[in-house]
Structure formats: structure tokens, C-alpha cells
Design goal:
6-stranded mixed barrel; two-stranded antiparallel sheet; 10 strands; 5 helices; globular; alpha/beta
Length: 265
């Protein structure tokens, strides 16, 4: 990614929806969460898209794979992609490349489906495919940041797309954070943390991670209700806390909150 590239909230919402539709959904086999701020085409042809993406894991040809994906979906939604304009087309290319990197066979991570959370359908998680050690950065797990302005107040809808929002302690403002790293789930005893730098966020390992282990971060003390009383993470399950403390309840609601993010800039 170009370190100087900056997107507005609206641009990031649109670009991430398109990128996950092109890359993530065909590989996972279902439609992942979308911001759905602007009308965008339902991307079909998942079978041939998946074949193209699996081929990329061996060719590592970013440009040719991106062009091939657009050519495939262009048959159904060519007018839409052509209307994006040169800036948005380049932003889409860069954002899709972020997801490409996470699917490289030597990336050290794997994006997989997850059905852990009772309030979430078609969820995903990040699993390690190698050993990670404290202080290492999982650079393929990149998050792109856009700062909220008063004009963006109508973007988020409670329970619909109010996820991946973090609060910058340095800038004292809410920020939207989307990209591969947004699929890192919460745990009350995490093995990594989010760190912001300019217009991006990355994941830094804070304790050893083994192959097959889920990569997790801490979202905050009240992200899942007061004192995380509705948390469904693995640590809460082991310790009988959070949602697992309320064994008599058959209906669990996942409350959305705000991530508190360390910043290096």
C-alpha cells in the first residue's frame, strides 16, 4: 500500500465491500459482512473467481490476477466498475492487493469461517499457519483507517454495520478500520494487539502463537456490554465468564462497542 493513500469513510466502505466480494467471499464460500453504504453489484461467478484466486497462490501475480477478476465480474457489472473513476479503481486495486497478501501460502495466516458468535452469521477468523513470536508484526494483516467526520454520522447503523470502529487516544476521534485485520476476533487474553500508524493499522504479536491457533486482539473492557458481560471469547468460555456465566439465558445478544487502539504516530 502507498503510505500516503488516504480514504474517506465512504470510500473505505465502498472499496472494502467490493474487495471482500471479489476475494474473500469466493474463497470462503459465503457473503461476509458488508458496510453497504453505496449501491454495489452482487458479485457472482464465485466458482471461476475461486479458481483464479487459488491459481494466484502459486503464481503470485498480483496485477494479472486483479485484472482477471475484474474481467470475470465485468461481464455482469462492467458499467459499475467502469464508472468508479481512476482514483477509486486504483484504491480498489491497492485494497484487493491487501487481501491477496493474506492468502499467500507463506503469509503465516489463514482467513477461515467461524460460527463462534451467536449474533453473527457468516463470520470469519484469522488462524496462524506458522509460529509467531512476541514483537513480530503480522504485516499481511493490514487495516485501513478512515476518520469519522460530522458528515459521516449516518453511516453506521446499530446492529447492522457498527463494527470495526476504534477510538484513537492520540487524535481523540472515532475511526473506521477495514481490511484483512478487521477479521481478527476479540479475546480477553489475546495473543496480539492492534497498533495504528498513519492511515493504517497492523497486528503485533504479544505472546507466542502456534500453527492452528487463532490470532486474537483485545477490543476493550466494555465492547461486549458492561464489563464484557456478553463476551463469547474462548478465554471467557474456559473461565466461565462473560456470556458463559449466564447459563440460564437462551438468547445472547452481542453488543457492539468501540476498539481502543494504541497509536505509534
Amino acid at each position: 500500500m502507498d503510505g500516503g493513500t488516504r480514504m474517506s469513510v465512504m470510500e473505505l466502505c465502498e472499496i472494502d465491500d467490493l474487495a471482500t466480494g471479489l476475494v474473500l467471499d469466493p474463497l470462503l464460500g459465503f457473503r461476509t459482512h458488508k458496510m453497504n453504504i453505496t449501491p454495489s453489484p452482487e458479485i457472482q461467478c464465485c466458482g471461476i473467481l475461486k479458481e483464479t484466486l487459488l491459481s494466484f497462490q502459486h503464481t503470485h501475480d498480483f496485477s494479472a490476477t486483479f485484472d482477471a477478476l475484474l474481467m470475470i465480474v465485468g461481464k455482469l457489472a462492467g458499467d459499475y466498475f467502469n464508472s468508479l473513476g481512476s482514483r477509486h479503481q486504483e484504491l480498489l486495486r491497492q485494497h484487493v492487493y491487501c487481501y491477496f497478501r493474506a492468502f499467500l501460502l507463506d503469509s503465516g495466516v489463514k482467513i477461515e469461517s467461524s460460527d463462534r458468535y451467536s449474533s453473527e452469521t457468516n463470520g470469519a477468523k484469522i488462524t496462524s499457519t506458522r509460529h509467531w513470536f512476541p514483537g513480530q508484526r503480522a504485516e499481511v494483516l493490514l487495516g485501513c483507517i478512515a476518520e469519522f467526520s460530522p458528515a459521516d454520522s449516518a453511516v453506521l447503523q446499530a446492529g447492522v454495520n457498527d463494527f470495526s470502529v476504534m477510538y484513537s487516544l492520540r487524535k481523540r476521534c472515532d475511526q473506521l478500520w477495514l481490511g484483512p485485520a478487521s477479521f481478527v476476533n476479540h479475546d480477553c487474553n489475546p495473543n496480539s494487539k492492534h497498533v495504528a500508524c498513519r492511515f493504517f493499522a497492523y497486528v503485533e504479536v504479544i505472546r507466542p502463537i502456534s500453527p492452528g491457533e487463532e490470532i486474537t486482539c483485545y477490543y476493550g473492557a466494555n465492547f461486549f456490554g458492561e464489563g464484557n458481560e456478553m463476551c463469547e471469547c474462548c478465554t471467557c468460555e474456559r473461565n466461565g465468564k462473560g456470556r458463559f456465566k449466564q447459563r440460564g439465558s437462551s438468547l445472547i445478544v452481542k453488543k457492539q462497542g468501540t476498539l481502543w487502539l494504541q497509536s505509534t504516530d
